[in-house]
User: Fold this.
Amino acid sequence: MKINIIGGGPAGLYFAILMKKADAAHQIRIFERNGPNDTFGWGVVFSGKTLANLRAADDVSHAEITREFEAWDNVDVVHRDAKISIHGNSFSGIARLQLLKILQRRAEQLGVEILFHSEIQDVESLRKDCDLLLAADGVNSTVRLRYAPQFQPELDVRANRYIWYGTQQLFHGLTLTFRENSAGVFAAHSYKFSPTTSTFIVECDPQTWAGAGFEQMGSDETLDYLGEVFSQDLNGHKLLSNNSKWINFLLVKNKNWFFENVVLIGDALHTAHFSIGSGTKLAIEDAIALAESFQQTTNVSDALMHFEKTRRPVIEDYQAAAFESMRWFENAGEYMHLSPIELAYVLMTRSGRVSYEDLKRRDAAFIRQYELSHGLHG
Ligand SMILES: Cc1cc2nc3c(=O)[nH]c(=O)nc-3n(C[C@H](O)[C@H](O)[C@H](O)COP(=O)(O)OP(=O)(O)OC[C@H]3O[C@@H](n4cnc5c(N)ncnc54)[C@H](O)[C@@H]3O)c2cc1C
Assistant:
């Protein structure tokens, strides 16, 4: 089979690896507009369950990924200068660039051709020139736009703003920090992803954003302002920019996932708010599901139909949980009157996917502390 892939992010690379592993005769080309060492952002997170899926799909890249990653089992909630830790949550972080390098190497070893610095504008020519065109071209997908009447995308630009920084302050766990000033409430999502660096994403609502005056500020001033807001948490370390800019989260859904020989995958197909840390996981698991569909049948239409049929319910379930989580952060200001322990409990259960019983199983001491604070215990 001749497969053209637009986008050499996690989704495109992983699908190429699995297809080439399944049949070395497939001719697979990936067109990637960036160079092999360019990337945006800092680190990405995987759950323990995702790592098990990666091992089952390709133990070679799994071994390399787990050699590089930083693991932890706690979510920390920081509010009013108090830190509450909730254990029993298995996560790991890896630099996005590191992950891409591992997947690029693995794909090239298997014989996948990666054409860097190749930005595709003429999608239709590429589509006609292959049996399968995989649109793994990210959240602002050119392919999705080109065939919008076929895919019928639903794009929802959310009101909150966020900005993705790094820092050398190490956060040993997924840390959610809340700080308030006269402009409003700022939430930081941070976690260590290498021995020296953490991701540090700051999010705020539009009123806070306007009140702080970010519209008039340059990059350095914004960095200094936020460094000041989180000075106690950064412990003297600076925030680090990687061309970091304020973004509105874009919620992506598509009525149709494929047509003829073109299929959307990863962020081009769907997004889930970063507060549940699932974008890379979903992109890679899409690739696994699609490659499995080609194990069922070599007929392209049947395989794409199988992919959508089996994968859509999983994605809808995730997007529903991520939506609840996103809404929570959009309304974070309403929860600031809660005590740190109450806030931690409400946060842990915000998506509807983690229950009281789950938390009790994961971290009985946390639940005891929560119940004591409510006079429900002893
Ligand atoms: C602030 C923030 C925090 C995040 N945190 C996490 C996290 O903690 N954990 C997590 O798992 N995920 C996280 N994500 C999400 C993650 O970055 C993406 O969800 C994931 O990378 C999606 O993979 P993808 O392969 O679908 O797309 P991408 O990784 O976006 O890859 C698409 C690729 O296509 C290329 N491309 C686009 N258009 C063209 C074209 N026309 N021609 C050629 N190439 C093209 C791009 O250069 C890019 O390399 C976060 C995202 C953001 C914005």
Observations:
- The pocket of flavin-adenine dinucleotide is lined by residues 6-12, 31-34, 44-45, 119-120, 136-138, 142, 162, 164, 201, 266-268, 274, 277-281, 283 (CB under 6 Å).
- The first helix runs from residue 10 to 22.
